[in-house]
Amino acid sequence: MWQQHMLQLRSRQRGFHLITDEVASALAHMPMVTVGLLHLQLQHTSASLTLNENADPTVRQDFEAWFNHAVSEDTRYFRHTYEGPDDMPAHLKSSLLGTSLMLPISHGRLALGTWQGIYLGEHRDHGGGRKLLLTLQGE
Asked: Which Pfam family would be a valid example here (predicted)?
């Protein structure tokens, strides 16, 4: 069985944000599968998804600090800056982490590790709401 659901994420400030509960809530409204895979596809090129530490918020703060250091907004050779100095850095950060995740489903729920959470990486100062397509396959 295949199913899809579009999840509209609210606008968030720049940084890394846990969205595990929002994904789990959307999954709960889809017909249950005992065993399956949930594919998440963020439909944007200036934000990202990753799976990492869900308990200590300093991990998300360190992610943001490292990415801002690694991909600086004051890089002089960037030419794609039409939407501001965070434009090209946001695209690079999105490409480094990616915009999709494939997650296991067991008995209708996300089967994540104890300390794992789904992050939305918002790489723009004013990114706005984001759309996340959930595609569930299973039985």
From this structure: YjbQ
